[in-house]
Design a protein that fits this description.
The chain is α+β, with helices and mostly antiparallel strands. Helix 1 packs across helix 3. The protein contains nine helices and six strands; from the N terminus they run αββααββααβαβααα. It is globular and about 55 Å long. Strand 5, helix 6 and strand 6 form a beta-alpha-beta unit.
Length: 214
């Protein structure tokens, strides 16, 4: 459980707005260790009492989530994309990082999680990331969640909630509502046609002896 401290609130000085590679992690760790009441940064307040404080401090001390958050912040300050960052971890090491690059690449699929997955697959030379975990600064959108399942990642860690993203203009709840709509009634109508001809590729796949399943 997270407790929101009303007062006092420790405000992190201006110098902390410019992070080095591990600056945010160091900042959060130092603040959590030295401040017994609360930690606050740009509108985020985290406080704990007793066990709750200890558990929250452990979550704040996670270097992988701290890195994902730092990437999201850096992306905002650089103007390269939206406020999202992600890292993929294998055996305790970051093997790939990603930030939202939708606007800079004109690629609507270039979300932080997808960029990180692409990097991890290239690094490992594999389309399956079974032994990897992803740390992302925000709860994945439907597209990214689908990509995570297809990539077979073992666990998802996330910071912000989807509801938090919606408040700043990234609302994907309508996509979930679309799933429940009949195909012709969706915002983008889906019209099925030529199924018999399309099945030819599936039949060929079934009969292919040397295919690589995934």
């Amino acid at each position: 459980m997270v407790f929101i401290a009303k007062s006092p609130i420790l405000r992190i000085p201006e110098r902390s707005y410019h992070f080095q590679r591990s600056g945010l992690y160091s900042l959060l760790s130092e603040t959590a260790a030295n401040e017994s009441m609360s930690t606050h940064w740009r509108g985020f307040a985290v406080a704990g009492i007793g066990t709750a404080r200890s558990n929250e401090r452990k979550r704040m001390d996670n270097p992988f989530m701290a890195r994902a958050i730092q990437l999201s912040l850096d992306n905002v300050f650089s103007g390269q994309g939206g406020p999202f960052g992600a890292v993929i971890v294998k055996d305790g090491n970051i093997i790939a990082e990603g930030v939202n690059r939708v606007t800079v690449t004109n690629d609507p699929t270039a979300h932080a999680e997808v960029v990180a997955i692409r990097g991890a697959c290239a690094q490992l030379k594999s389309f399956a990331l079974k032994d990897c975990e992803i740390y992302t600064s925000c709860e994945p959108c439907p597209m990214c969640l689908g990509a995570i399942y297809w990539a077979q990642l073992s666990r998802i860690h996330f910071g912000n909630l989807a509801a938090d993203a919606a408040k700043v203009g990234f609302d994907d709840s309508f996509i979930y509502r679309e799933f429940a709509q009949p195909l012709p009634q969706r915002k983008i109508p889906m019209l099925q046609m030529m199924r018999e001809q399309a099945l030819a590729a599936f039949h060929a796949w079934q009969e292919k002896p040397n295919k690589i399943p995934y």
